[in-house]
Design goal:
The protein is mostly helical. The protein is 63% helix and 1% strand.
């Protein structure tokens, strides 16, 4: 501190002397200036001592004013001082002083020796981060005859060229977070700089150049290109192949035996797939267990790959050239470290490029960066990761791999493995080989001591697991991932444990599920696979294995709970469940590890509830009870989410037809009673945390009917009371969650039969439908739809008393009102209107006011079906129209709405572009149960359905192709429904309609009959029976001809 004060005083004293010198001009002035500059430059600038920024700026301005640009001696000393003040003392120069200093430096380069390195260093420090103040000076710097352009492209001195390039890099420099905030450099000047950088990077390396200076030149060029991309991504799009070629070349620059070759433009693979949208697979395919695929022999650098430690950081800490000794070893280390920085700069450039390029475009270049097992894979990201001695370099490689993998599931869905031999290798198998090699690479990369690299590797593996279609690849990949990641869930570092649990959570969430995942994750915990730092992986033939050892914890666990899967056991241990008689209070589990353990438990629910959680639900309940009682808010929140997931999976488990059940009703009941006895109730009563109350409501909403019906009466009352109280909460999230939970509960048999509960739930829903918050209204509208479902079930039960007309009218009015709201609300309103109109009775229609509301409701559905811009609103409205037409009472008396409804549905089924809307419109047209319900529209509907069937081949949007067969099926079923109402008087009229459609209708009907499952064929059977019945009647020759045509179409009989 004393030294810093002394330096500050000295600086102030020398500054004062120089100010006086300006007013006392004499012949010895030049000598005195030189002496002052020497004293100022001799100060220790590595220690921060300047407290008055303005004083330092004034001094710089004075020096630039008095020192002539042609005086090389004083200029060099002045430049050194400016560089020290800016780079070491962080003096901020702005405004006129900045412009004046840059102009002075430019004059120095023009009037004195243009190879003045000190002036170039000074210029670089002045313009870095200040490019937005240089608009008027840029022509002198990087114009057609700019000094920097000339020095960077034609200087014969390597160091001069280096500093000229550094100045160009400083001009383009921008931080990623600053790009949207500051004015960008003019696109013309960005292009000038980019062309210089590309020219220098693409040219041949001179044989007699200094390697360190050359590496620094490469680093500046690579960083300059990165900054240019941040400011103008079009540069990367226009020269993508060149940018990727440069990155690929220099990311392995002198990396062991990766010989340097001149960068070349990379072209996209000809095998890149263009029609990815058609290959999106969402179906659930069972995983096939194939033979273990032998892994390829890895590259012969296992020794180098296995030895990674924190000692590599020593080289990373090097800041300046002075940190190296002049010995041969020092020079070698200096070259090695600088070459490593070239590789890092290239990887950073590649990362920046990948971020601004569309995924589908980048996919065409995958083969240039990921090996498929062929010998040509030396210049790959895999090798950058496995052979890079610098931890920062390995992290840079992992960042690129992670960015490429993120969001790549759609593209990797094509990958597959096969043991068959082909005349040529299909692209899907090449992609599968890439995925296989990447799995092997990342598993090897786990042999790492540096915690940040290890953590990033695990996160990268998690992304790979999320994107890989394991059901299409050879068995063994999941097993290798789990075996290699498993040891790290017991790592000493909490961040590593969390990352390892994330990987295993992704494995659990991988879909479609395969048997291999179940086998490796459900294994009982007896031994632990581990990679030790002093034991590198050993090869047995071609299969990589890792050392195994059994820990004391696991031995004790296997004695007490030997049937618990190892992953569940570890999660429960992390959450405080003690498996042994020895209570270990010295091992405190960090909160992030507990949070991720809860996430893993939640992930188990999705696909493995019946085999991983159901048999051990009591231990899980204990862990959740502990977590819900924890003082840490986030832990209680994640515990609540886990309860929500378990409740949902438990409902599905009880609803499934699988026998025997892995979980009995009694154990499920005990699970919920444990939670309702305190911890879950406390969650709903957390006054300070609305999020906890919200998730608590979600938990209660997922209790499910099987459990709720068996709960003691006091617990049922407790659940309902808590939900009604929360429905009046001040927080929007709590209100929405509570109303949703009530709407789920109203479908439970006992609550559905309780008219008082139904009325109270309706009141809560209607109240929240008027909330100002959109999310609350959306959840309330969904709840209204659920309530309407419950009311339909209530009415269909013969033992119940009639629903109050006032309730139905009130709900109808609320539904009509919200049908003008947000599109999501409109969809839910359509669902509710369809159900509520089914409840309308003739008694209610006798009152004109109620009849008017019914007509308004129907008009709203027609309007949303025909005019909405949202497709979901349209098809929900069509479905709702079909739903309310199941109510025969609506067709009694005056039916002014029929013509409007049928004409709207016919227009949609024929002309609308969206096939799902047409499907629902056709479905609605097949709902009326009597011929009289169609009125005068019967033959019009026939014609509309036939025309619609003819234009099913006209697809405007390719995404509709997947719905075409469903549309044809529904049109044929709707026509079959109309056939069941035919009379002999209709046959002549029908003949005129069918004559031009017979062959096409026959073809479609035959295909539908072949592919339709028996459960959906009832309408077809009724139609054929009716046609046979028609033939038994006394018919004219013309009428018999029509019946024969119908038999030809529907029964496959040739017309007579």
């Amino acid at each position: 501190m004393a030294c810093e004060n002394e330096s500050c005083q000295t600086f102030d004293s020398l500054s004062l002397k120089f100010s006086r010198l300006l007013y006392e001009r004499n012949e010895k002035q030049q000598q005195q200036i030189s002496s002052l500059l020497d004293e100022l430059n001799n100060l220790n600038y590595k220690s921060q001592f300047i407290t008055n920024n303005n004083k330092a700026v004034l001094l710089i301005h004075q020096f630039c004013t008095i020192i002539p640009p042609s005086d090389n001696t004083l200029v060099e000393k002045c430049c050194k001082l400016i560089v020290s003040l800016i780079t070491l003392q962080y003096v901020n120069i702005e405004g006129r002083t900045l412009s004046f200093a840059i102009e002075w430096t430019i004059q120095v380069l023009k009037q004195s020796d243009p190879s003045n390195i000190a002036a170039l260093k000074c210029l670089e420090s002045l313009i870095r981060d200040n490019v937005h103040h240089l608009n008027e000076l840029l022509p002198d710097l990087i114009g057609r005859t700019g000094i920097l352009v000339r020095l960077a492209t034609s200087s014969s001195l390597q160091e001069v060229q280096l500093w000229a390039v550094k100045c160009l890099e400083a001009i383009t420099y921008t931080k990623e977070e600053q790009v949207p905030k500051i004015a960008q450099l003019n696109a013309h000047y960005l292009d000038v700089c980019a062309q210089i950088f590309l020219q220098l990077l693409m040219q041949e390396k001179q044989t007699n150049c200094d390697e360190v200076l050359y590496c620094k030149l490469l680093i500046s060029c690579l960083r300059g290109l990165q900054s240019i991309i941040l400011q103008n991504s079009d540069v990367a799009h226009n020269e993508l192949g060149v940018f990727l070629g440069i990155s690929r070349c220099y990311m392995t620059y002198f990396l062991y035996d990766a010989n340097w070759v001149k960068p070349q433009k990379i072209m996209p693979s000809n095998l890149s797939v263009a029609d990815l949208k058609t290959n999106i697979t969402r179906e659930k395919k069972g995983g096939k267990i194939t033979k273990q695929r032998k892994q390829r022999k890895s590259t012969p650098h296992k020794k180098d790959e296995g030895k990674r430690s924190d000692s590599n950081l020593k080289s990373e800490a090097v800041i300046s050239d002075s940190d190296f000794s002049d010995s041969e070893t020092g020079k070698s280390n200096k070259i090695s470290v600088t070459q490593g920085r070239v590789r890092q700069a290239a990887l950073n450039l590649l990362l920046c490029t990948v971020k601004v390029i569309d995924k589908h475009v980048m996919f065409g270049y995958w083969s240039s960066f990921f090996p498929d097992g062929s010998p040509a894979g030396v210049h790959s990201l895999n090798q950058c990761l496995l052979r890079e001695p610098s931890p920062r370099g390995r992290i840079a490689a992992l960042n690129v791999i992670s960015t490429i993998l993120n969001g790549s599931k759609l593209y990797l869905s094509q990958a597959e493995s096969s043991e068959k031999t082909f005349a040529f290798t299909p692209f899907s198998m090449i992609l599968g080989a890439m995925v296989h090699e990447l799995h092997q690479c990342l598993c090897l990369a786990l042999n790492e001591n540096y915690i940040p690299v290890l953590t990033q590797t695990l996160k990268c593996i998690a992304l790979l697991v999320q994107a890989t279609p394991y059901h299409r690849l050879s068995a063994g990949l999941i097993t290798s991932i789990v075996k290699n990641v498993k040891p790290f869930i017991r790592h000493r570092d909490a961040t590593v444990q969390v990352a390892a649990l994330i990987v295993l959570g992704c494995v659990l969430a991988s879909e479609p599920t395969i048997l291999e995942t179940q086998i490796i994750l459900v294994q009982i915990s007896t031994k632990t696979m581990s990679i030790t730092r002093n034991k590198a992986p050993r090869e047995t033939g071609q299969e990589i294995e890792y050392a195994e050892f059994s820990s004391d914890d696991e031995d004790q666990a296997s004695e007490t709970y030997s049937n618990v899967p190892w992953l569940l056991e570890k999660c429960l241990r992390n959450l405080g469940v003690i498996y042994t008689t020895t209570n270990r209070t010295d091992n405190v589990v960090p909160a992030p590890v507990k949070l991720e353990s809860l996430q893993v438990v939640s992930a188990m629910c999705r696909n493995y509830f019946h085999i991983m959680l159901a048999p051990h639900i009591m231990q899980v309940a204990k862990a959740l009870e502990i977590s819900l009682s924890d003082k840490y808010m986030d832990l209680r929140l994640h515990a609540g989410r886990a309860v929500d997931s378990i409740g949902h999976s438990m409902q599905q488990h009880f609803a499934s037809s699988d026998e025997p059940k892995a979980l009995s009703i009694d154990k499920g009941l005990t699970f919920w009673q444990i939670l309702l006895n305190g911890p879950l109730t406390a969650l709903l009563q957390s006054e300070k945390h609305a999020t906890l109350r919200s998730i608590g409501c979600d938990c209660l909403g997922n209790i499910g009917p099987d459990i709720f019906e068996h709960l003691p009466k006091d617990k049922q009352i407790l659940v309902i009371t808590l939900l009604f109280a929360c429905s009046r909460d001040e927080e929007n999230s709590v209100k929405g969650a509570a109303v949703r939970a009530l709407a789920i509960s109203v479908l439970y048999p006992s609550l559905r039969e309780d008219l008082g509960f139904v009325m109270d739930t309706a009141e809560a829903i209607i109240r929240n439908l008027e909330d100002v918050n959109l999310t609350v209204r959306i959840k309330s509208s969904w709840s209204l739809g659920n309530l309407s479902d419950a009311l339909v079930l209530y009415k269909n039960s013969t033992t119940n008393e009639d629903l109050p007309n006032s309730l139905i009218v009130k709900l109808l009015s609320a539904s009509i009102k919200i049908a003008e709201d947000n599109n999501k609300i409109k969809s839910n309103a359509a669902r509710a209107l369809g159900n509520l109109l089914r409840l309308i009775s003739t008694e209610l229609l006798e009152q004109n006011s109620h009849k008017l509301i019914v007509e308004q409701a129907i008009a709203v559905l027609v309007k949303n079906a025909t005019n909405s811009l949202d497709m979901k609103v349209r098809w929900n409205s069509c479905y709702a129209i079909g739903n309310f037409m199941k109510n025969n009472d609506l067709f009694i008396g005056s039916t002014v709405w029929q013509h409007n409804v049928f004409s709207s549905l016919m227009d949609l089924v024929v002309n609308f572009r969206n096939f799902k809307v047409r499907i629902n419109a056709a479905l609605a047209l097949a709902v009326p149960e009597k011929r009289t319900h169609y009125g005068h529209s019967y033959f019009d509907i026939w014609e509309a359905l036939l025309n619609s069937l003819d234009n099913t081949q006209n697809i405007e949007e390719f995404s509709e192709f997947k719905h075409r067969d469903n549309l044809i099926d529904q049109l044929c079923l709707s026509l079959s429904h109309l056939v069941t109402f035919l009379t002999s008087e209709d046959l002549n009229t029908l003949n005129e309609l069918m004559v031009s459609h017979v062959d096409a209708l026959k073809t479609h009907m035959h295909r539908v009959q072949e592919r339709l499952v028996p459960e959906k064929s009832e309408t077809l059977v009724k139609a054929t029976n009716h046609i046979v019945q028609l033939q038994t009647m006394l018919l004219s020759h013309e009428e018999n001809t029509v019946v024969n045509l119908l038999k030809y179409v529907f029964i496959n009989d040739n017309p007579a």
